[in-house]
Task: structure prediction
Amino acid sequence: MAVKKFEHVPVLASEATGLLITNPDGVYVDGTFGRGGHARLFLSRLSPKGRLIALDRDGEAIAAASSIKDPRFRAFHCPFSEMAEVVRDLAIDQVDGVFLDIGVSSPQVDDARRGFSFRFEGPLDMRMDNSQALTAADWLSQATVGEMVRVFKDYGEEKFASLIARSVEEERKKQAITTTTQLANLVSRVVPHSSKDASQHPATRVFQAIRIKVNQEFEQLKKGLDAAGQILAPKGVLGVITFHSLEDRIVKRFFSLSSNPAQQIDSKLPLRESDLPQATFKHVRRTLPTPEEITNNPRSRSAILRTAERTEVPWRNIGEIL
Ligand SMILES: C[S@@+](CC[C@H](N)C(=O)[O-])C[C@H]1O[C@@H](n2cnc3c(N)ncnc32)[C@H](O)[C@@H]1O
Result:
């Protein structure tokens, strides 16, 4: 039987490469290797002295990274929240750029066995790292109605969060919810017909919310941003691509607080200019895909790339206020 090959088209690839790689001799971290679309482009811009450290929490992505035979390249199976430890273990003090392309890859979504998509019948899994214990089905079997409502609302902006959570509670008394189609059909049944949107499956938001919960995506993102701030050299660039507004809000706030930290200080306090905290990032910039890219790769339509340059000011951890 032929092995199915899942492809991933990198988004905002030339824009990200141009903004990130400012020193061809430098050391770079790609925290979300996926299938290496961005990583290969970064390598093509580096000199023989440059280095690229790739991370991914998905073992299949790291297995795919072994196809890159290049002495300048190393790949590690770990979450990007641990990038500072990886860099330290390699005896590297600072890096010249960190790149994060947040979310799931096409190979993860398109492989029915991974259970990310309501479009394919598969186990309700959704773990990016399948060495992790908790699957989506496990979470759905244990969560209280209150927890489900919070997750569906906070991570999916789902209007019918209570209705869906109560229906899950009813259904799991009869039988365990273990497959993608079981959950997708349940959500389709309970969302009122008048609220259904022809352009989006009614289960889209619930699937997004459960995926974010199971993979602790927002906690990872906040820790990853902080870790990048710690390891970047002055003038080093952090570039982050997000695919939905909840993630983008975190990245936007991170760059806003670190480029203008005085906004955290009560303006009524009698402080001199020199007492105010100094910016740890500058030149914050937002880049969107061109209409041509959206036509060629519709998955790029919601992508936002935010980049900024690290200053010389010592790093202050702001993860907990994001
Ligand atoms: C959108 S894809 C990246 C695609 C990649 N840029 C490419 O061109 O092939 C996102 C990847 O990030 C990984 N990922 C998501 N969150 C992660 C985290 N916290 N730590 C490490 N990898 C993560 C996923 O497993 C997935 O492979």
Summary: The radius of gyration is 21 Å. The chain has a mean pLDDT of 94. The domain at 13-106+217-321 is CATH 3.40.50.150 (Rossmann fold).
